[in-house]
Design goal:
mainly beta; 4-stranded mixed beta sheet; globular
Length: about 110
Amino acid sequence: MTKIVFVNPQDRSFVLLNPELVDRRDEKFEVWDVCFSANASFVARIERDSRIVVKYLGEDGARRREDFEDYFSELLQHEIDHLHGRLFIDLIENPETITMLDEWGGGEWVLCS
């Protein structure tokens, strides 16, 4: 079975076929995360790796290995988690960080579809 992640932010659009996280930096960062799988109704603070290395096939079928940092690191961890049946709610360590979206004060976060 082929697993697909399509990324389409403003600055770069690409497809990853069968992406696999093969390396992570020990350094972590926190992010407010939200997801349409949770009806995009609440956000929660979770921890992600600041840099990851992903092996994948491009849409042309070529094998690729690429480093991703910061925004793309978080986005791809979020989306690759979906391919393995994990949601951001599985990563919540402190339930007190869960905030309804209409009450949330803002910050950095990622939407998934």
